[in-house]
Every structure is written in structure tokens, then in C-alpha cells.
User: Fold this.
Amino acid sequence: MADRSGDSIIVVESLTKVYAMGETEVHALRGVSLEIAAGSFVAIMGPSGSGKTTFLDILGCLSRPTSGHYWLKGQKVSDLPETRLAELRNHEIGFVFQNFNLLSRADALANVELPLLYDGIGRRERRRRAREALEAVGLGDRLDHRPNELSGGQRQRVAIARALVNQPSILFADEPTGNLDTQSGQSIMTLFRELHRKGNTIVMVTHEAEVAAYAEREISFRDGLPVKDICREKTTDQ
Ligand SMILES: Nc1ncnc2c1ncn2[C@@H]1O[C@H](COP(=O)(O)OP(=O)(O)OP(=O)(O)O)[C@@H](O)[C@H]1O
Ligand SMILES: [Mg+2]
Assistant:
């Protein structure tokens, strides 16, 4: 019954999210149903307040829907207990935030090691894998730099390395270029495109059309519902 496998890594059905604000309610999602194919690169667009972050947070298991169903890799997550959700977050999901969310007192290597530490992996192996992840995002020469000793684009690369160090099934990113200048933003998108070509599934929120253009599918939200869903021709090498 709970098994909804196939090509879709994500299936959601009639998802709603209602925030209670004292006497009033905010209907942030109003019954979202869609599927996301494994290996795809999706951009979620839409005006401020349309429900993009609310939707991504539910997909990333950072919050729960008020009603509706969510399957991740065929597993129904909308009614899993909190302990199982935490495991899922640590193993299946990488999350990148607009403001990087790095530990300011830890260097790049220690920041990237963190998810492995939670997983009880030994120090040597942690170091090795964190170094590899940082090399993969082009920061092999910045391992011992703290966040305030890195540029914005480099900080976001550390956050991406941290999100990928556990080899998750899917990478979520909420406005990953929102705090970056145009050039750093483009280089982060080039990195996302590379990660996508290597087979990673990426779901990214952005309000910038130039950023969304890197994705192969664009879903636009308005008032808590997807109103437009466009698939581009598969991008060829440019
Ligand atoms: N924790 C919360 N409590 C109450 N209302 C909330 C909460 N989080 C979001 N909302 C409301 O839900 C709606 C959707 O918010 P959401 O953050 O998902 O929008 P968004 O599309 O990500 O916007 P932006 O582009 O500005 O980031 C908004 O009307 C917002 O005010
Ligand atoms: Mg948002």
C-alpha cells in the first residue's frame, strides 16, 4: 500500500500546510500533487509567500504537512515517527540554505565532517570523506579556513560539500544563490549542473529566472499551488 515506486523519487499527493496564527490560519499549501523523477534537476519558482520554502521544507523532512501524503523513494514518509525522519534526513537528504548555516567557529573540514560525526563514523574516515567532498567542490586548498575566512561563494561550496558528504539520494536547496553576487551565483549553478550530470537529483527554490534556467524542469507556485510546470529539452553541453 505504501509502496509507490517507479521512476519517481518523490511523489506527493494533496499536500496541505496550514499555519495557525492565533485566531487566523495561513494556508501556505493548498493541496499539492506532483512527482519528481530520479536524476532530475528541478527549479521551484514563484512570488514571495507562494509556499516555496514551506514545500521544500516538507520535501526535505524539515517539517510535516498538515494533511496529504509524501513518498520518498517509495517509502511513505508523511507518517513516519520523528526518529525515523531524523535518520532519513541524515542518509537520504542533503539540504543547502540561502544563508549557508555553517558553524562559524569550525573550519571547512570540520563543518563538512559534521553529518558523519552524527553517524558515528571514525575520525580518520570522516576526515578522508570530508576532504574528498571539499575537493569535489573545488575547495581542496581551503580545508582549514573558517567561514569568515572564505568568500560567500566558497561558504556556499562548503555547505554543498556538507550536504553531499553522506551521498544522499537528493539535494534540496532553498535560494542557494540568494546571498551571492552574480558571478559566484553562476559558479554555484555550474557546480549544480555538474552534480546533476553525475546523476544527483536536485530540487532548488529560486526567484531568479537566470538561475532557474540551469534546471531542466520549472514548477511555478502561486498561492500555495503549482500553476505552471515546464520541462525543457535536456540541456546539452554549452
Ligand atoms: N512558521 C510560519 N508561521 C506562520 N506563517 C508562516 C510560517 N512560515 C511561512 N508562513 C506563511 O506561509 C506562506 C508561505 O510562506 P513561504 O515561506 O513558504 O513562502 P516562499 O514562497 O518561500 O516566499 P519567499 O520567496 O519570500 O521566501 C506565507 O504567507 C508566510 O507568511
Ligand atoms: Mg522562501
In short: The chain has a mean pLDDT of 93. The CA atoms of residues 6 and 76 lie 14 Å apart. Residues 8-231 form a domain with the Rossmann fold fold (CATH 3.40.50.300).
